[in-house]
Each structure stands twice: as C-alpha cells, then as structure tokens.
Amino acid sequence: MTPPRDINEALRGWRLHSLAAGHSARTITSREYTLRRLAQDVDPLTATHDDLVEWLAGLTDHRTGKPVTKSSRATYRAQVRAFYAWMHASGRREDDPAAGLPQNRIPRAHPRPLSRQEVDRLLDACSSSRAAQTRAYVLLACYEGLRVHEIAKVRGEDFHGDVLRVQGKGGLDATLPVHPKVAELAATMPQRGWWFPSPLGAKLPHVHRVSVGQAITRALDRAGIPGTPHACRHFYGTQVLAKSGGNLRVTQRAMRHADIRTTTIYTLVADEDVQHAVTSI
Fold first, then answer.
1. What CATH number is associated with residue 228?
2. Max alpha carbon distance in the chain (Å)?
3. Which of 18, 80, 88, 238 holds its CA 20 to 30 A away from the CA of 52?
4. Cβ neighbours, 10 Å, residue 103
5. Domain membership flag for residue 2
6. Sheet of 163-167: strands edge to edge?
7. What mean pLDDT do residues 128-154 have?
C-alpha cells in the first residue's frame, strides 16, 4: 500500500474503513476532528511516538485554556491509537507510533443528578413561549434519559403508541416506555419528520447536538442550578434505580448501557444521604 500523500487522503481511507466497520457517523466525525486537531501541531503522517506523547501531554480545552480532563485525554489517546493501528495494519505506514502511549487512570465516575426540585425549577425556567423547544429538550433528557445527540435526532416516527425508539451510541437501536410527561409533549409535536429541524436545511436536517446542550445549559443558568445537561440524564438514571427498588438490570435497560458496570455508578450515594441514614437510626 502506498503511503497517503496528505492527511486528507489518509482520512478518506480511514472514513471508508470506519464505515465498513459499522461505526456511527458521530464516531467517525469525532475521530476525524481529533486527527485534524493533531494536524494543527504535528504532521500525523510523519509523527513519532515522542511527538504524540508531547501532544497528548499538552492538550488544552479550547474554551478555557486549561488542561483537558482525564476522560477527554483518554478519548483522544484511544482515537489516535485506532488511527495509527489502521495505518500500520493497512500498510500505509511501516511503524505504529501510537503503540505504548501512556494511559490515564480515570477516577470512577460519580453521577451528579439533578434533584426533583431542581428539575421543576429547570422546567419553570423554560416556561415562556420562546423557550418551548428548550423545555422539550429538558423533558426528553429528564424523563426518557436521552443524550443531547439523541434529542437532536428525535422524529415523530420514533413514537409508536407508548414506546419510543431511540438510536443511541454506536447507532444501536433501543426502545423505551414513553413517560406521561413526554406523551403530553408528543401530542403537541409533529407526527412525522424531525421534531427539531435545523435552519441549515439539507446540510444538517436536524438541530446540532451542541445547540441542544447549549440551550439546556442556558436554562440551567437561568434556574441558578450548577451542572451540565448530562445531569438531566443522571436524574433519570437515579430515579429509575430508586423506583425499581435498586434493580440494576432494569436500570441498565432503561439507561441503555452496554455494560452493567457503567450502571453501577448510580448505586453511589451522596454524603448527605449517608448522614441522613445514620442519624435516622
């Protein structure tokens, strides 16, 4: 295999490989973004192991200028490793400079769910007609546990009676029971087509996931609630766990986790809950 002439040619080949492997468009786009970010600092086609180590060590958040989180660094590392493994295996490069890149020890995630009172305040912050679309985002996140990229792609055809079909991570389809609050919302939304069409039209038929996240973040700010849009999904997860009597399998199914070990983070309890339990003895 002849080495690619430039990064664009390399990424075209990798995109085809990823499509053939069944990766989702979101995964492919994320991987391409990482390689183009790498290309801003070092030529990916000639990068050495030391170049990649230095690049990973110096990664910063574009918005804050601070070092990226451990989980973000781990994602960048995984995507770079996948690219160079493909380059080496396909004969486009004789070596694999990403082999043996330092690993991050990522601390166990701790859910930071909204409380029921905070969800009510968040919905109150979306009570005006101008915030009707944001309110719909919040309902889907809090009462169906949808991620921001899943909310962006909701269509009328996804609802079948009391069942919602969701295309989640990796393009995997799943079904969820429709919460009564979401059923009320669905009655006011289009029965066919995108619920949240994009003004960009054919270029992007539905709103971008970033727009969904930003809208929820602004609503959280208006409500005076610290947190991120994902806290809405954490609210859903902790409520399902509590209402199911601590049944991890039920919660795994509702959260659509491939690995039940991911679901176990919802069994972690806050310090104030421990204090309440002890003082109530």
1. 1.10.443.10
2. 72
3. 18
4. 10
5. no
6. 159-160, 163-167, 173-177
7. 96
Distances (CA, A) of 229 to 36, 100, 106, 119: 27, 35, 21, 11
Percent of the chain with pLDDT over 70: 90
Same domain for 143 and 20: no
- Domain extent, residue 16, equals 7-89
Predicted pLDDT at 281: 62
pLDDT at 272 over 60: no
Answer yes or no: do 150 and 264 share one domain. Answer: yes
Q: How confident is the model at residue 260 (pLDDT cuts 50, 70, 90)?
A: confident
pLDDT of residue 258: 85
Q: How many domains does the chain have?
A: 2
Q: What pLDDT, on a 0 to 100 scale, did the predictor assign at position 43?
A: 94
130 and 233 together in one domain: yes
Instruction: Decide: 193 and 156 in contact? Cβ < 8 Å.
Output: yes
Q: Which residue is associated with the tokens 């451990």?
A: 70
Co-location of 197 and 59 in the same domain: no
pTM: 0.71
Phi, psi of 163 (to 5 degrees): -125, 135
